[in-house]
Specification:
Blueprint: H1 2-11, H2 25-37, H3 41-55, H4 65-83
Length: 88
């Protein structure tokens, strides 16, 4: 549950970093596909690290509605994989 909460905060782009960057929805869609294909904790952890890296320095204002939704979907798939719950 802690992981899901952390991912949700990250997913909303609530970064306090001084700089910000843009993230493409294509990158987020690819990450979502990878995250939702995960079936175990190890895979979920791997995708979580990719997500953290991709969203490092991203602010909420840098994401449009589609970007926020995709990020939330990635977070949910990662949390499900880490908990051993099927993403289907």
């Amino acid at each position: 549950m802690k992981t899901l909460a952390a991912l949700c905060i990250l997913a909303l782009g609530l970064s306090t970093a001084a700089c910000s960057k843009k993230v493409s929805t294509d990158d987020l869609a690819k990450l979502k596909s990878e995250a939702c294909a995960c079936r175990d904790k190890r895979c979920g952890d791997k995708v979580e690290k990719k997500m953290m890296s991709l969203l490092d320095g991203v602010k909420e204002t840098d994401l449009d509605k589609e970007g926020i939704n995709l990020t939330m979907e990635v977070a949910l798939c990662v949390a499900s994989a880490q908990a051993g719950i099927s993403n289907n």
